């Protein structure tokens, strides 16, 4: 029996041990069913995604064994389904294509090195406490990227559905152009098979549940049956191809021989030149994979009123990817589709993942000969059905109504990924989201404010019934003052003063000013001087503590004099109204 | 006599005509003196800067004739001295070196094309109303860039001061390394001459005024005499070299023959491939030149309680650069040093610039043979003395005390320019300033606030004496809510709620929230749900008009319910205090 302290440590590092402490028989049955459903989905998807990554199909299965077991031990999400996923596979595929073109090795060794780098990067992010770096990828960038990647993935599968050697260089126009030019050469049987596959998959996903619910089948069986669509499609197509003899006459492309046996844990040769080339894609794969896993994990956890721990996820996914590297395969992540299936099928803990991994292990060990006749067109259909829901037109429309900048970011990321490729596209999207953010804050909202009724509250004169004093101009700048907007703010205040000749005092209400940088400080100094030369005194009000601390280290407060820094806008208004009312010679009286 | 309307138009487009309407004889005398002082400075500087740009010396003089006349007509600054400037010359030099290395033509035709592009870009910026783009280059970036460029310029002149063929590839370490390796091969006479030149220049600049002020010379003569240091140094060195016969024995490098005559207005051949390569440097030269001109112009104008018009400056500088192109020379800008001299010498209008241009024109037409014996070491010394004041260590120290991020930007730009070159360096600096801005706003200041005394004012509990209610957590987020900080804010609020079990209401005071993007909206929706599941209600207060307009277009306000949006923090606090006091079952009572 371990000591309580050791137990706590164990539970801290291995969330599974915590869940097992009150694990019931019924939990296990739930996990068993969910695990089997996911396993049945994982086998076709694994093979299909390996294809997408430009690897032989067994590597997709290898990626669905050891990484799953590792995640099951370390992961903080009960129902996240880790393994080969569509988007990461696409990114791995484009990286492998680039790296092999530069003569940096064979696809498999590149994939292994990528896994190693992805795992290392994730664990480094944890050690350096930099997990929050994913926050810099905005929702809109990810959404635009995902839609574009899904479209690219869908189009890339047209080669398997048509039997045409469509160039797969990541440029959608090339692929579609080639398709249109070679319409007459399409392999009719392949196309038919592919379309039938799509039909079966769609039927299982969209219609089967409705039909079965009217049958005498028990409810707990209906859900798994509907999820097994890809497996049905595979089995039917294998039987059809094997019996028809179409494959023997090369009329249909099949998977062929898959080596039997579990992946062998191996050593990895270190190639610094290769790592240098793989570093950027590895960072992107790591970040996107982590982000997808955390967001799916958070969504599922919140449905059970639980939370996942992003730090634990960094470690768990990092270790899972190292596991992928040492079992000789390509990077993994938590996938959207299978996690949803896992959750919906009732997974209680990561035991479900262990069941799924065992099913895949059994398949790899004994059943690969059964897949000999599996047509590639069916794998293509499986991929297409898996990625279609990721194309999210609704998100674009929703963000257009709420925030044009978000919609613009989403759309430009989408276009950038389609035209510049996956890697450059997402970097572009991140850059655009940054630029738009800076652009927005470079033209801040500035309101002229007045007192609301008799309160101490000041609001925009254009929006509320407020009282103002014609000798006092109170403005509120709704942005921090920094290099990109100082001139804008300066110009606004100058223009306001120029159009209101009676103004003697300008109060700048700084409750929305969160910092002032060196450029803005200089601009304020200039503004103070220029206003003074026109007989106008600048005052500040509601300056925040951290800013005040810094201003006190400079000579600005002396330069501001006779202008003052008031604690509140109310105090400023009272003091200045009194001062002008007490018959200080106002500009108006002088001229 | 033109109609009043035409006169107004004339005055609008040609600020000089406005100033001439009350131009006095005394104004002309001031302009004449200032123009002659600037002219005397312009002749050696023009030749020296042409050198820096990798062009024969006469091109620096050409750049000081027609562009000055054009600016004199169109410019809105009375005392800005346009012409060849150090930093633009360095940038032109590095561009020319790159372009000639790529075999894109001879230095002069590249320089002419650069002028054409720079002029066109500036005028396009005016037409597209994009002049404010320069605001995106922060003060710190420009300061770091200027210091590094000045250092690069200084080091580049060591070849003229030592007579060594120091490689001038823009990498300071290469130059210094070469210098150290070849210390023994330094040309002693050249070095001596250069150091003497520096001594004379320094003496005229720093000491002469003090000595002359004690002499019987009239005051109006002292200032011009001190400014003529470069001219003195040139004349003395020419006399020395010509009489000593050193140049005949190749012991000292001299300027040699300069073609006599004014620049010929010519046509420019269009070379799209060249333009493509020159575009990025041209944009940077245009922006930096514009920024330098506007900031010098603004500084000088504010000393006379005037303002310059950035839009007019775009047109004036654009036209001046087109003038440079058609007179066959390289880009110009408003320079810091000569403008200061122009102002200090009493320039009243741009007539001073016309005088200076005429002096240069006379020199080019008749006096170039006099410069035959001018040693290059003296030109090097002139450049070094001109750029030394641009190395601004004080600015770095000042920004370090006020704002570490600014200091970091300045320092990294400085290092980037020195290590990556002028162009990439400044782009890097801009990128860093953007990233730091986003990084800063990704970890916003969040304050738990309470009521100040009996006022309606709420401030940070950590900084002020305030009263709070243990059932109500009022927080103020000092930043807009957007993708980079949503998780940070969410985590802060959750952590606060977790540590204060009695909290029933969270009021998020949004007076510093200037916008909410789609990522943040989703995060707020999640937060509302999660807090609700813990029995805590989220409320908003002081939401700004523009944000409220947008929120009303979404379903968020329904999701927030029973949470409310209060007009002020005060109202929120009153309403919620009353609600909890009225015996609504609080969490504490329930558990």
Could you describe the largest sheet of chain A, including whether it forms a barrel? 7 strands, mixed
Protein structure class of chain A: mainly alpha
> How large is the radius of gyration of chain A?
31 Å
Number of helices of chain A: 27
| C-alpha geometry of chain A | elongated
Largest interface: A-B, 67 and 68 residues
Task: Write up what this structure looks like.
2 copies of one chain form a homodimer. With about 600 residues, chain A is mostly helical. Helix content of chain A is about 65%, strand content about 5%. Chain A contains 27 helices and 9 strands. Chain A has helices at about 5-15, 15-20, 25-50, 60, 65-75, 85-100, 105-125, 140-155, 160, 170-180, 190-215, 220-225, 230-245, 270-305, 310-325, 335-345, 350-365, 375-385, 395-400, 405-420, 420-440, 485-500, 520-535, 545-550, 555-560, 570-580, 585-590; strands spanning about 80-85, 335, 445-450, 460, 465, 470-475, 505-510, 535-540, 565. In chain A, strands 3, 4, 5, 6, 7, 8 and 9 form a 7-stranded mixed sheet that branches. In chain A, helix 23 links the parallel strand 7 (about 505-510) and strand 8 (about 535-540). In chain A, helix 3 runs parallel beside helix 6 (about 85-100) and helix 8 packs antiparallel against helix 18. The longest helix of chain A has about 30 residues, at about 270-305. The model of chain A is unreliable at about 585-590 (pLDDT under 50). Chains A and B meet through helix 19, helix 21, helix 22, helix 23 and helix 24 of A and helix 8, helix 19, helix 21, helix 22 and helix 23 of B.
């Amino acid at each position: 029996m371990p000591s309580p302290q050791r137990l706590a440590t164990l539970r801290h590092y291995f969330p599974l041990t915590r869940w097992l402490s009150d694990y019931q028989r019924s939990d296990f049955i739930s996990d068993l069913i969910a695990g089997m459903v996911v396993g049945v989905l994982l086998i076709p998807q694994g093979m299909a995604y390996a294809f997408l990554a430009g690897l032989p199909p067994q590597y997709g299965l290898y990626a669905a064994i050891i990484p799953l077991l590792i995640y099951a031990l370390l992961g903080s999400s009960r129902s996240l389904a880790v393994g080969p996923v569509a988007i990461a596979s696409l990114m791995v595929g484009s990286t492998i294509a680039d790296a092999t073109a530069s003569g940096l090795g064979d696809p498999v060794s590149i994939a292994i090195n990528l896994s190693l780098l992805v795992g290392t990067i994730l664990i480094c992010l944890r050690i350096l406490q930099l997990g929050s770096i994913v926050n810099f990828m905005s929702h809109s960038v990810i959404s635009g990227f995902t839609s574009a990647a899904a479209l690219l993935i869908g189009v890339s599968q047209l080669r398997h559905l048509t039997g045409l050697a469509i160039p797969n260089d990541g440029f959608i126009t090339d692929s579609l152009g080639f398709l249109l030019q070679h319409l007459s050469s399409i392999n009719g049987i392949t196309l038919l098979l592919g379309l039938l596959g799509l039909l079966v998959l769609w039927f299982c996903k969209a219609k089967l549940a409705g039909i079965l619910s009217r049958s005498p089948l028990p409810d707990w069986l209906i859900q798994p049956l509907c999820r097994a669509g890809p497996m049905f499609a595979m089995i039917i197509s294998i039987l059809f191809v094997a019996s028809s003899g179409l494959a023997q006459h090369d009329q249909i492309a099949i998977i062929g021989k898959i080596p039997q046996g579990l992946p062998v844990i191996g050593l990895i040769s270190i190639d610094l030149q290769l790592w240098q080339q793989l570093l950027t894609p590895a960072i992107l794969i790591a970040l996107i994979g982590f982000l997808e896993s955390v967001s799916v994990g958070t969504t599922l956890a919140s449905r059970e009123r639980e939370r996942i721990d992003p730090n634990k996820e960094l470690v768990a996914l990092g270790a899972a990817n190292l596991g992928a590297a040492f079992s000789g395969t390509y990077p993994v992540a938590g996938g959207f589709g299978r996690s949803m299936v896992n959750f919906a099928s009732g997974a209680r803990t990561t035991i479900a993942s262990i069941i799924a991994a065992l099913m895949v292990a059994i398949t790899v060990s004994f059943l690969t000969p059964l897949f000999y006749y599996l047509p590639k067109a069916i794998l293509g259909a499986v991929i297409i059905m898996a990625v279609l829901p990721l194309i999210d037109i609704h998100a674009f429309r929703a963000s257009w109504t709420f925030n044009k900048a978000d919609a613009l970011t989403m759309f430009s990321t989408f276009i950038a990924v389609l035209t510049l490729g996956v890697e450059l596209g997402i970097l572009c999207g991140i850059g655009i989201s940054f630029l738009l953010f800076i652009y927005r804050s470079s033209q801040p909202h500035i309101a002229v404010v007045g007192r609301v009724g008799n309160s101490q509250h000041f609001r925009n004169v254009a929006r509320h019934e407020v009282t103002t004093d014609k000798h006092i101009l109170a403005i509120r700048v709704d942005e921090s003052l920094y290099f990109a907007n100082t001139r804008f703010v300066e110009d606004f205040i100058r223009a306001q003063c120029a159009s209101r000749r009676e103004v003697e005092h300008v109060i700048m209400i700084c409750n929305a000013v969160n910092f002032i940088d060196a450029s803005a400080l200089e601009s304020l100094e200039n503004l103070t001087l220029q206003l003074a030369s026109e007989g106008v005194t600048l005052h500040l009000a509601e300056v925040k503590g951290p800013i005040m601390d810094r201003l006190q280290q400079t000579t600005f407060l002396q330069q501001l004099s006779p202008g003052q820094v008031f604690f509140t806008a109310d105090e400023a208004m009272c003091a200045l109204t009194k001062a002008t009312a007490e018959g200080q010679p106002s500009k108006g009286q002088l001229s």
